[in-house]
Amino acid sequence: MMKTPDLHTHSTASDGTLAPRDLIERAAQQGVEVLALTDHDTLAGLDEASEAAHAQGLSLVPGVEISVTWGGRTIHIVGLDVDPACAVLGSGLAGLRGYREQRAIEIAARLERVGWPGALEGARALASGELVGRTHFARFLVQRGAAKDLRSVFKHFLVKGKPGHVAGQWTTLEEAVGWIRAAGGQAVIAHPARYGLTRSKMKRLLDDFRAFGGRGIEVVSGSHSRDDYFTFARWAREQGLLASAGSDYHGPESPWIELGRLPALPEGCKPIWEQPGFAGLDQHRRVGTLEPMQARLSAV
Ligand code: AMP
Ligand code: MN
Ligand code: MN
Ligand code: MN
Fold it and tell me: Is any atom of ligand 1 closer than 6 Å to the C-beta of 14?
């Protein structure tokens, strides 16, 4: 059995703090063998990550985390093993980034009204990529002393009912899953415990997701408790969905989350990474074992 891969991470291409190259190097240092880079609504980090992964001998699974509005809530759908050259996925994500720009202007205007001017420029300056998210606003507000840490900035400024909150208007679940499938990838519901859904709403989400061609849910996640692992292992089993695992790493500023530090999936889960053909991992392992032999042959 293969070591649990880390199939959910972020770089500076979205709201992580490590450049794709540094993320891969850290992953390699941590002993991670298989890593998916899943930046929010962009594939921009994948080229650099893939180059670095090659240099480190680590298997990179090209991925993305897509923002979706479903039932009036924001849901995140991870796409794994996507073709970064897929035009359908590319233009879908470009649309979401366009919406992010408008939302950023609106967030900044609202923050200005409660006494925090300059947030758009401040957030942009903290975003090294092309994408501005709430995390960048949160870091800006922490720097200005509006709150002591990210968690409390979110709580006091950026969530529903707070002055900097803008209700998300992302893409639909059907479209997000469709783009991932068009790119030859597997759609996975990110950190399902985070949405605060009742059992009946969760059932509805999973039914919709499966009907659109969704394949898996994150059972093990950096934002899940141990109880959540078992709850969602059971949902996966009962709903005939595959299980995924990912740290949701955003950078060393949150030291309680580390790359690849993930427990094994609970008993009875079907790991998405063990599906035939997944990210070419089976082939990669074959090549990995053949290489020394070829090297010996060519040395003869
Ligand atoms: P956005 O997609 O721009 O709305 O931002 C969502 C991101 O904000 C998530 O992916 C997390 O990285 C971050 N985030 C959301 N809630 C919190 C929180 N309570 N504390 C810290 N970070 C959060
Ligand atoms: Mn994030
Ligand atoms: Mn997420
Ligand atoms: Mn994430």
Answer: no
With a 6 Å cutoff on the Cβ, whether 135 touches ligand 1 is: yes
pLDDT digit string, tens, across residues 11-30? 999 999 999 999 999 999 99
- CATH number of the domain that 138 lies in? 1.10.150.650
Residue nearest ligand 1's atom 11 by CA: 135
Which residue range forms the structural domain that includes residue 141? Answer: 97-158
pTM for this one?
A: 0.94
Q: Which residues surround ligand 2, an ion (CB under 5 A)?
A: 15
Please report how the helices 119-126 and 134-143 are oriented relative to each other, as an axis angle in degrees rounded to 10. Answer: 110
Q: Dump pLDDT digits (tens) for 82-113.
A: 999 999 999 999 999 999 999 999 999 999 99
- Residue 234 included in any domain: no
- Its sign, for the CA torsion 101, 170, 233, 243, is negative
The atom number, within ligand 1, closest to the CA of 67 reads: 2
Instruction: Tell me the two tokens of residue 132.
Output: 């501005």
Cβ 133 under 6 angstroms from ligand 1: yes
Sign of CA dihedral 229, 230, 232, 237: positive
Q: Count of domains in the chain?
A: 1
What single DSSP character describes residue 6? B
